[in-house]
Amino acid sequence: MSIRERLRIVIEIQGISIKAFAELVDIPLRTLHNYLSGEREPSSEFLSKIADKFNINLNWLLLSKGKMYLEENKIDLDEDESELLDHYRSVNELGKRILKKTSKIILSELSNNEI
């Protein structure tokens, strides 16, 4: 199985369109199409980003060795925490920076207003 086939599997498991996947990993749609068609080999930066974002075993993605997913550290999140994390994961890098800055501002304001 080739890298492009494994990329397709990752996209299918996410249950989203190719366009939505490209947005999630913050690459141009044309670039992703080139990877999936075999016209270009995916960059190591791109593969690393996918591995990190979706908890994919990089050895599986590159070489088809081992399990697809890395072992997860189980953390119990309540519904609100899970929702915040989902929002963070669903935005591109600019959105992540904005969310981080906004949360720091909110925390600062809250700590300044505590009695």
UniProtKB/TrEMBL annotation:
The keyword Transcription regulation applies. Transmembrane segments: none annotated. It comes from the Bacteria. Pfam families: HTH_3. Keywords: DNA-binding, Transcription, Transcription regulation. One of its GO terms (molecular function) is DNA binding. Signal peptide: none annotated. Residues 7-61 form the HTH cro/C1-type domain. This is Helix-turn-helix domain. It comes from Mannheimia haemolytica (Pasteurella haemolytica).
